[in-house]
Write a structure and sequence with these properties.
By secondary structure, the chain is mainly beta. It is 5% helix and 53% strand. It has an 18-stranded antiparallel beta sheet that branches. It is globular, with a radius of gyration of 19 Å.
Length: 244
């Protein structure tokens, strides 16, 4: 038996909260979109995925997010119709922040469900930095983030989703997420975690916890976000409380 703790999908636009937090039977996995890093990006990055106008960079002990203002997508859609001068004048605001696994051990990350297709990156004139046949995956498993606890990343209905997998005997109290670079954080009325950035709010739906036993999912009695203080006042963190 394994305990599966589903910490919800992450939707970058509140109107697009498409991934339910209670009914996991109607989720629609996305096409493979996690691209491995073979040197086309800085070394800390292991995988990258694009999610609803933002990019998430998967690292060993967390993720870095980069999000553009919501009008950027519409403006970029018609960029080919603009003159070179108009293109040069285009500017977009953006915001980057990090989520770190607080107290993580030494996790590793492996891609899942590799696509037959691949990406090529021929950027700039330095051929030593070019990369070809870069793998694309349907998801990523970050193994042993905490003792006997894995984190599985995927995309569902266009949203970013992560599941925390607890092996028998694992301590769910170890699951704690620390955030850096946000303008603010708050809990919504439905238990969602609202992350405030300079280019709009990001919502993580209320966590759902359930067990997986003999291919049958059973919801646990209770799970929620809990504010967790850190030694540095500039850091904010959250942990997941689970009861069964």
């Amino acid at each position: 038996m394994k305990y599966l703790l589903s910490l919800s999908a992450l939707a970058l636009f509140p109107a697009w909260l498409l991934a339910g937090t209670e009914d996991h039977g109607h989720e629609h996995p996305q096409a493979r979109s996690f691209v491995e890093n073979l040197g086309q990006w800085p070394a800390p990055v292991l995988f990258r995925a694009d999610v609803n106008g933002a990019a998430v960079f998967v690292e060993r002990t967390g993720w870095t997010w980069a999000k553009l203002e919501e009008s950027a997508s519409a403006q970029m859609h018609d960029i080919a119709l603009l003159s070179p001068e108009e293109q040069a004048r285009l500017q977009f605001n953006g915001h980057a922040w990090r989520m770190r696994f607080e107290g993580a051990t030494a996790p590793t990350a492996v891609g899942m469900d590799k696509a037959e297709t691949y990406h090529n990156y021929f950027l700039g004139n330095d051929q030593s930095r070019w990369r070809s046949r870069v793998g694309v995956y349907g998801g990523v498993t970050q193994r042993s983030v905490w003792p006997d606890i894995d984190v599985v990343l995927s995309k569902v209905d266009g949203n970013f989703k992560y599941d925390v997998m607890l092996a028998p005997g694992a301590d769910p109290g170890k699951v704690a997420l620390a955030y850096d670079g946000l303008d603010g954080m708050a809990l919504g009325k439905n238990g969602e975690l609202i992350l405030t950035t300079s280019v709009g709010d990001v919502t993580e739906l209320a966590p759902v916890a359930f067990t997986v036993m003999a291919q049958v999912n059973r919801s646990l009695a209770y799970s929620c976000w809990m504010d967790r203080p850190f030694a540095s006042p500039s850091r904010r963190g959250w942990m997941v409380a689970v009861a069964w």
